[in-house]
Design goal:
Blueprint lengths: L3 H26 L4 H5 L3 H13 L1 H32 L1 H5 L4 E3 L5 E7 L4 H16 L4 E7 L9 H12 L4 H10 L6 H10 L4 H8 L3 H13 L7 E5 L4 E4 L1 H10 L2
Parallel strand pairs: 2-3
Antiparallel strand pairs: 1-3, 2-4, 4-5
Helix pairs in contact: 1-4, 7-8, 7-10
Length: 255
């Protein structure tokens, strides 16, 4: 079955090609700034433009070579991540919240957004799986707030991180997804009160959460993750991107 990475790679190649060709068309049809135009020989400019018009395949070929180079770099990053996940998982986990069995040979990394409705559905499934297979998997939570479409994703992530500093991340995480339609500062404070958090520390930690969240987002960008929820699973026998629907089969068959 085609993996998400391979499908997304082809889509990314197509979009890059389209973007570059569109940019070239714009450059060929737009007037240059006066200062730049004064430094270019008009005859030479026309010759170059004519060559480009007559041999667009040369440009497309160059774009394709560039795309291949970028894809190779991306594949190397992904393979390095998967290798670290298998051989040195703590480098991937870092200070991220974890739950499940500490002795598990299966590690599940989730990139999630507290305002994403699909993440809320995945949250229910994951809770059931963790309850059903308590000794088989450790779940690692990574933030990927899609701020362009979810305005409360980043504030919610900051509030959850603040709760994490007082050892209450997963309780706070569950409350955010349960009350996803009420996300906002009033809810963040109410949850903190209900969990008996030190509110002074909680509010201060909210303002200090950005570097940790940014680190997660940068990792997601390196891996070309564009949507949530997104899962990577690793065990002694496999290490790959996985769909939520496949996770239970993997856990059921794990020894």
């Amino acid at each position: 079955m085609t993996t998400f990475f391979s499908w997304f790679g082809r889509l990314l190649q197509y979009l890059r090609t389209l973007a570059v060709i569109s940019m070239l068309c714009f450059l060929l049809t737009s007037p240059l700034p006066a200062q730049a135009a004064s430094r270019i020989d008009p005859q030479l400019e026309q010759q170059v433009l004519q060559i480009i018009r007559e041999h667009p395949e040369a440009i497309i070929e160059s774009v394709q070579v560039y795309q291949q180079q970028q894809q190779q770099k991306l594949n190397q990053v992904r393979q390095g991540f998967l290798q670290d996940l298998k051989t040195n998982p703590q480098t991937v986990i870092g200070e991220s919240p974890t739950t499940g069995s500490s002795n598990s040979k299966i590690l599940l990394v989730e990139f999630s957004d507290f305002q994403c409705p699909y993440c809320a559905e995945a949250h229910k499934t994951l809770k059931d799986l963790l309850a059903k297979y308590p000794d088989k998997v450790k779940l690692v939570y990574k933030n990927l707030p899609l701020t362009s479409i979810h305005p409360q994703a980043l504030p919610a992530a900051a509030a959850a991180w603040a709760a994490h500093q007082q050892g209450k991340f997963w309780e706070y995480h569950d409350a955010l997804f349960t009350n996803q339609k009420q996300l906002g500062e009033a809810l963040y404070l109410d949850i903190a009160k209900n969990l008996n958090l030190d509110l002074v520390k909680f509010k201060r930690h909210q303002t200090l959460a950005t570097p940790a969240i940014t680190k997660d987002v940068q990792l997601a960008e390196k891996l070309a993750v564009s949507g949530t929820p997104f899962f990577v699973i690793s065990s002694p026998t496999i290490s790959r991107v996985v769909q939520l629907s496949d996770i239970e089969n993997i856990l059921a068959n794990a020894k």
